[in-house]
Amino acid sequence: MNILAFAGSLRSGSLNKALLRNAKEAAPEGMEIEIFDLEGIPLFNADLEKEGVPERVNEFKEAIRRSDGILIASPEYNHGMSGVTKNAVDWASRPPKNPVMMGKPAAIVGASPGITGTARSQEQLRQTLKGLDVRCMASPEFLLYRAKEKLDDEGVLTDDSTRDFLKTFMKEFADWVSIFLNHKD
Ligand SMILES: Cc1cc2nc3c(=O)[nH]c(=O)nc-3n(C[C@H](O)[C@H](O)[C@H](O)COP(=O)(O)O)c2cc1C
Description:
With 185 residues, the chain is of the alpha/beta class.
């Protein structure tokens, strides 16, 4: 089972990128996670698309196309998803007739230093993905609140109960993706 993961942040010290690295560690046997860095994905512009889709965007879309499922770490900016997240989804929503994300199973996670743990950004992203017929796992939800207290300087989760729950979450995600894999056969 191949999962394509991306975080809607470009910063090297991103809490959300760190969360994805931990999710990769927590993944059950048989689940491979490729983490795609959104650095180099330009702002969506239909003129640019007409001239020829940028190479990095093609790499992103291809990585999604060959995956069995998608894992998104969604930072929260001003009570919504980051522009980086939305921009990536907008590129992946093209061409509108057969977008690469359509029908894929997905899961959303997120990390923030505050107490709401990206709840609002996750909800907004879920709504956007619904429009693309992306099948988001509804439950359980994974919200890494007070993330700076739970990650060490290298971005490794130090909180035991959070680490355990991340394992449970990833196992549930594997089960969710399996439903769609079996359906394909
Ligand atoms: C412009 C801006 C708006 C933000 N708005 C929120 C917010 O509404 N809710 C929240 O929990 N954190 C908010 N934050 C804090 C982010 O959660 C925090 O910067 C987080 O580390 C960003 O994700 P990253 O570490 O993956 O880059 C905001 C940060 C910025 C820069």
